[in-house]
Design brief:
There is one protein chain. α5 (154-164) packs antiparallel against α6 (170-184). With 209 residues, the protein is an alpha/beta fold. Helix content is 29%, strand content 26%. It is globular and about 50 Å long. It has two domains: 3-151 and 192-201, Vaccinia Virus protein VP39 (Rossmann fold, 3-Layer(aba) Sandwich), CATH 3.40.50.150; 154-188, no CATH class. The protein starts with 16 loop residues before the first strand and ends in an 8-residue tail after the last strand. The chain has a seven-stranded mixed sheet with strand order 2-1-3-4-7-5-6, sandwiched between helices. It has helices spanning 25-33, 74-84, 102-105, 118-127, 154-164, 170-184, and strands at residues 17-20, 37-40, 61-69, 85-96, 130-140, 145-150, 194-201.
Length: 209
């Protein structure tokens, strides 16, 4: 799969307005081809793409898609998203997972720099009137996901590592029983570099102004 396939995680319909943040040209082209009204949010600013809190959204969106969020101000970002999503509107956001085991194994991976855990992100969503609906572990990397594994039940991740996952080195083959064990005890969120969260703005939530 590729970033454009993230659209299948949302209940999109032709004619709806979608805000897409970041460098996701293929996703924008695909959504436009599907009959959606797409606004690439990066077109509305000259600042770094990480400064989502400085973006002035135009209108209210049915959906906002942030394939890869890397700004340090998550609360401010979600406050703005909560303001400009329609009540009942959907958000898809990808984060680098600070709880990932790769954080301790890699010196160059983006996950080394992140500050966002799944629990922190869900809490920040709730504080801004947005409720997480489903969470996925992105394998192998958030930027180029090959598979998305639901994290709400440990048996899904355990099945993935038992039956689908193919080790790409001797080390990962040696680690496979450990990965299965971690999944079986409910800590599957630690096995993925990136996490994709699908959330929805509450119909009568209290979003910060």
């Amino acid at each position: 799969m590729n970033v454009a396939d993230l659209r299948f995680l949302l209940p999109l319909a032709a004619g709806q307005r979608v805000g897409v943040f970041g460098d996701a040209k293929r996703l924008v082209e695909t959504l436009t081809g599907d009959g959606l009204i797409v606004k690439p949010i990066s077109q509305f600013q000259n600042q770094s793409l990480t400064d989502l809190e400085s973006v002035e959204f135009i209108g209210s969106f049915d959906h906002v898609i942030i394939p890869e969020f890397s700004s340090g101000n998550l609360d401010s970002c979600l406050r703005r998203v909560g303001q400009f999503l329609k009540p009942g509107g959907w958000l898809l956001i990808g984060i680098h997972n600070s709880e990932s085991l790769y954080r301790f194994l890699s010196k160059t991976d983006a996950v080394k720099k992140t500050l966002f855990s799944l629990r922190k992100c869900i809490r920040a969503l709730e504080e801004n009137g947005i409720q997480a609906v489903c969470c996925y572990g992105a394998y192998e990397k958030l930027e180029h996901p090959q598979d998305l594994i639901r994290l709400d039940h440990s048996f899904i991740s355990e099945y993935f590592f038992r039956n689908i996952y193919i080790p790409n080195s001797r080390f990962t083959a040696w680690m496979l029983p450990v990965l299965i064990l971690i999944s079986s005890v409910g800590l599957q969120r630690m096995l993925f570099r990136g996490i994709v969260i699908v959330a929805r703005r509450k119909m009568r939530g209290n979003c910060a102004d």
